[in-house]
Specification:
The protein is of the alpha/beta class and 476 residues long. Helix content is 38%, strand content 11%. The chain has a domain of 226 residues: Spore Coat Polysaccharide Biosynthesis Protein SpsA, Chain A, CATH 3.90.550.10. The chain has an eight-stranded mixed sheet with strand order 1-9-7-8-5-2-3-4, with helices on one face. The chain has a two-stranded antiparallel ribbon with strand order 6-12. Strands 10-11 form a two-stranded antiparallel ribbon. Strand 10 and strand 11 form a beta hairpin. Its cofactor is Mn(2+).
């Protein structure tokens, strides 16, 4: 009997507890449903209210633009006459391989700022005005730009009107007697300021020579963590013809069986961090060479090529970006056909008519005359120098610079260089000069160049030899 009563009490208690648990389950279920509804309403905001959600979190609102463009064709690539991708999957930027409207929109969403570094040391400050004026017309149009001008003559920096969102920063640096020292400290100064201030002010750095002008659109299609530009004198040459540093004692040494491309030292760049690594390592290598009493054949350009060989660029610019049609002609691979200038774009007919340009030597040279729209003009062109005129005066009856589209006949667009400081190198260059003069009297450069790269090599030898003579005569 007592057992039955105990069971009855237990069953009664169980029913009570069961009721309490049931009520709690109903209570929790009701409020959890309300919480989920509230959360769902927060996440599934209507598309027409993005600004309120963004402003509640103090985030910028990015309004996406609707773009209409032709569908990319997988089976029909835009270019099949040139290399458009490297073996390490870096794109090679040629005209016709990109849609600038798409790329502009992608970078516009990121609100980037691009830094353009340029060195105007001593008399080279005379090139700065034309450089900045043409950059304002064609460089990174529609994006924010900081011009970083390194100079020892800040008072001579011209006041060039700048677009909204652009500014010029003058960085006063030391002057050096030898241009080779200027070249070496260029890498040092870029790396120093990249660490000190550039990383706070810009997202990308583009490093260019001052003795050039922009003649067409150069935009965000070039931007990448690390990019280099193919030298227009060697883009079709074999690696053994590249003018790498071949002396093992130099830190820029590259063996004859190595090398991808020959990059031009006049135009390279990338993110601030990558440019810092590049310039720092190149400067350290140049200082080590200096301690070993040796200078690379092309100085900073030789060290740049060594760096880009073992630290592959993530983007490679075609020689179109440094092409000079007047010197190199127009090969069939140049498909750059731009329309006349339109409002709000970077397209230009290249009808610039700069006034008389003062060469560093102090004598005047006429700038290129306006010839109306030109369909295969380079993005960047070297400004004529007195040294080029010296060559033409020395050999008026020889076609040293062929207009043939054959890539092996294309002479480098770089200006004549000064000789290395080693005294024993002068004898070699003078001997090579006589060899080249013998070739000139027997056969034209284009005839020699068929199946080889003799014309390019001879042009280089002559450049070095004339540089030696100029240095001895204190031409500069």
């Amino acid at each position: 009997m007592q057992l039955i009563q105990a069971k009855g009490k237990l069953s009664c208690c169980s029913r009570r507890w069961l009721g309490v648990i049931l009520l709690m389950a109903i209570f929790l279920g009701y409020f959890s449903q309300g919480f989920l509804d509230l959360k769902g309403n927060h996440l599934d905001l209507p598309s027409e209210q993005p600004s309120r959600a963004a402003h509640q979190n103090d985030l910028p609102v990015v309004k996406l633009m609707r773009l209409i463009y032709p569908k990319p064709q997988v089976l029909h690539p835009p270019r099949n006459d040139v290399l458009v991708i490297t073996p390490w999957l870096a794109p090679v930027v040629w005209e016709g391989t990109f849609n600038i409207d798409i790329i502009n929109e992608q970078f516009r969403q990121r609100n980037i700022t691009v830094g353009l570094t340029v060195f105007a040391i001593k008399k080279y400050v005379v090139f700065l005005k034309l450089f900045l004026e043409t950059a304002e017309k064609h460089f990174m149009v529609g994006h924010k730009v900081n011009y970083y001008v390194y100079t020892d003559r800040p008072a001579d920096v011209p006041a060039v009107p700048l677009r909204e969102g652009r500014k010029m920063v003058v960085l006063e640096v030391q002057n050096y007697a030898r241009w080779q020292d200027v070249s070496m400290h260029r890498m040092e100064m870029i790396s120093y300021f990249a660490q000190q201030r550039f990383h706070r002010e810009v997202d990308y750095l583009v490093c260019a020579d001052v003795d050039m002008k922009f003649s067409d659109h150069v935009g965000v299609e070039i931007l990448s963590p690390l990019f280099g530009t193919l030298h227009p004198g060697f883009y079709g040459a074999e690696r053994r013809s590249f003018t790498y540093e071949r002396r093992p004692l130099s830190q820029a040494y590259i063996p004859p069986d190595e090398g991808d491309f020959y990059y031009m030292g006049a135009f390279f760049g990338g993110t601030v961090s990558e440019v810092y690594k590049l310039t720092k390592e190149c400067h350290q290598a140049m200082m080590m060479d200096k301690s070993n009493r040796i200078e690379a054949v092309w100085h900073d350009e030789s060290h740049l090529n060594k760096y880009l060989l073992y630290h592959k660029p993530t983007k490679v610019l075609s020689p179109e970006y440094m092409w000079d049609e007047q010197l190199l002609g127009r090969p069939a691979i140049l498909q750059k056909l731009r329309p006349p200038e339109r409002e709000g774009t970077g397209f230009l007919s290249s009808g610039l008519a700069p006034s008389t340009i003062r060469a560093p030597e102090g004598r005047a040279e006429p700038g290129p005359a306006a010839t109306g729209p030109r369909t295969a003009q380079a993005w960047l062109q070297p400004v004529p120098r007195g040294k080029t005129q010296l060559l033409r005066e020395a050999f008026p009856d020889k076609a040293l610079l062929s207009s043939s589209p054959t890539p092996f006949c294309a002479a480098p667009t770089r200006s004549f260089i000064h000789p290395p400081s080693q005294p024993d190198g002068t004898y070699v260059y003078i001997c090579n000069l006589f060899i080249y003069l013998f070739i000139l009297t027997s056969v034209s450069p284009c005839e020699v160049a068929v199946g080889s790269n003799v014309s390019v090599c001879c042009y280089t030898v002559l450049s070095q030899a004339l540089g030696t003579v100029e240095a001895l005569n204190k031409y500069d």
